[in-house]
Amino acid sequence: MKYAVLVAAMFLGAGSAVAAPAPVEDIAGGSSDDRIARLERIIKAKQQGEFDMQRRLDALQKEVLDLRGITEQQNYQMEQMLQRQRQLYEDIANLSSKAEPVISSSAENDTANPITTSSLGETGSYEAAVNLVLKDRKYDEAIPAFQSFIKQYPQSTYAANANYWLGQLLYNKGEHAEAKAAFSTVVSQFADSNKRGDSLVKLGMIAEKDNDPVGAKALYNKVLKEYPNSASARLAQQQLAALNG
């Protein structure tokens, strides 16, 4: 009896060894349910990868469209600016031809202050001063021209732009104190001017040159707060990045 039990136990042990093969990671191994489960996991992982890739492509496409829109807007603004400049040149030419007969010989010889010796009036005087910069590139002569205009027409609709032009010309010459006064006039007296943001940026740049980084950062942050998404804000952000770098 004991012998029969021992033989039966040996057969059962051999059968168990045959029925339990070593586990494998291959997809072909295991039961049908296991293989189906592994296939489903593979398919799901592939689908998730494709979904993530499509999402990244959609994001990149949106960025391209946004950049294209910004470029088109900038091109439009540039074209508008060039058109206004061409119109300004034409107006100056017409005004100059009309004013020529009334300009005396002494005025023709007076190069120190060409605007005050003419009879162009408010608009003509401003446009002639701008013309010295844009067309004739006589920057030194443009400075007294703008100064004369500001003194004669302090409440003009062109006064903010005239002060900005004057500040820019003085800044380019390295006369930072005088430039600061002109830009500060735009900031304090012409809150609605489209040159106010640009003037704040210029004041920040002057503060940098005066070794006042704290003051410069305050001015740049003011631009970012009051004129977000503007060209002035982008320039202020660049200046801030340079200071913080």
From TrEMBL:
The keyword Signal applies. GO terms for biological process: FtsZ-dependent cytokinesis; protein trimerization. Pfam families: TolA_bind_tri, TPR_16, TPR_6. GO terms for cellular component: outer membrane-bounded periplasmic space. SUPFAM superfamilies: TPR-like. Residues 1-19 form the signal peptide. Residues 32-101 form the YbgF trimerisation domain. InterPro entries: CpoB, CpoB_C, TPR-like_helical_dom_sf, TPR_rpt, YbgF_tri. NCBIfam families: tol_pal_ybgF. Keywords: Cell cycle, Cell division, Periplasm, Signal. This is Cell division coordinator CpoB. It comes from the Bacteria. Mediates coordination of peptidoglycan synthesis and outer membrane constriction during cell division. Belongs to the CpoB family. It is found in: Periplasm.
